[in-house]
Amino acid sequence: MDFSGRSIVSMRDFTREDIQHVVRRALEVKKGAYADCLRGKVLATLFFEPSTRTRLSFEAAMVRMGGQVFGFADPNVSSATKGETLSDTIRTVCGYCHVIAMRHRIEGAARLASEVSLVPVINAGDGANQHPTQTFLDLVTIQEEVGRLTNIRIGMLGDLKHGRTVHSLAMALSLFGAEFVFISPESLSMPEDLTAQLASAGLKFTEVRELSDIGKPLDVLYVTRIQKERFEDFQEYQKVAGSYRLTPAVLSQAGEKVRIMHPLPRVDEIAPEMDSLPNAVYFRQAHNGVPTRQALLGLVTGVIS
Ligand code: NCD
């Protein structure tokens, strides 16, 4: 399998075999493989939107493998404020590094960047569209915590309209025969193009408004925060703010064995008393960001095959 030179823009670009390959490599990294293999390589992190985990775990991944990192976390210090286009910025920065990780508020920004860049571009989130590296680390977590990727029953709860993590994850899991339960207020439902895609692939999904309606137990309950920054109308946000909050009582609805995942940051949708339950895997999930991004950086730079 050849990932060398390949950009990571959307889960749409990956086959089931591609995904299994990345997950396998990430698990090998966790066991200590490929140490120092990015020595001499440089990553540029261009974050036009806020981030904690994604940017810092990209940096940690690069540093742990012997590589180096430069970039910005605040676009106000870049020439974007002078009116430079994204494509000019990318055309310039790609001459300074071996790989670019970029987060941008505009959907499709990563695709555009990948088309003008001379080095691989890794999409670290483009607006409400896609967040493929989050999905890879989510899949590594599911593989570890559930023991398989195939035929899982997963509930996705929260802002399914604006949440790029659930868009990417649903797309990826659709290649593994998952059964989906989408739980959200009506105004935050999964976009129709995505549900139409699941339907045409013959996958089972249900859409419910309340956790009490999820039916059979779940393998995974994937919780997301309401993406306040993506609402055009603040009043619309206020109507749904605080409309769901997980407490340990959720286990009686989702099953005693359900694994609770969340891409983080959380606001108020998971009560802190959930954290000590064996079901709460979200911090282990966040930690998987490092080995997963180590594997991806190694693969696209061609030092891991
Ligand atoms: C997510 C994101 O940026 O889309 N965070 C992350 O990368 N772990 C989720 C979110 O912001 O709610």
Molecular structure report:
- With 305 residues, the chain is α/β, with parallel strands linked by helices.
- The chain folds into 2 domains: 133 residues, 3-Layer(aba) Sandwich (Rossmann fold); 155 residues, Rossmann fold, CATH 3.40.50.1370.
- The protein contains 11 helices and 9 strands.
- Helix 1 crosses helix 11.
- The N and C termini lie close together (7 Å).
- The site of N-carbamoyl-L-aspartate has 12 residues, from helix 2 and helix 6.
Write the layout of secondary structure elements.
Elements (H helix, E strand, L loop, with lengths): L15 H15 L11 E6 L5 H12 L3 E5 L13 H8 L5 E6 L4 H8 L4 E6 L5 H15 L6 E5 L6 H10 L5 E5 L8 H9 L4 E4 L11 E4 L10 H7 L9 H5 L4 E3 L20 H6 L1 H12 L5
Parallel strand pairs: 1-2, 1-3, 3-4, 5-6, 5-8, 6-7, 8-9
Helix pairs in contact: 1-5, 1-11, 2-11, 3-4, 5-6, 5-11
The structure holds N-carbamoyl-L-aspartate.
N-carbamoyl-L-aspartate binds next to helix 2 and helix 6.
Strand content: 5-15%
The description of the largest β-sheet is: 5 strands, parallel
Helix/strand-derived category reads: alpha/beta
Q: How many structural units, i.e. domains?
A: 2
Q: Could you name the CATH topology of the largest domain?
A: Rossmann fold
Secondary-structure arrangement, i.e. CATH architecture of the largest domain: 3-Layer(aba) Sandwich
Which regions contain 5 or more consecutive residues with pLDDT less than 50? none
Strand order within the widest beta sheet? 7-6-5-8-9
- Give every kind of bound small molecule, once each: N-carbamoyl-L-aspartate
What's the Cα radius of gyration? 19 Å
> Could you give the order of the helices and strands?
HEHEHEHEHEHEHEEHHEHH
Mean of residue pLDDT values: 96
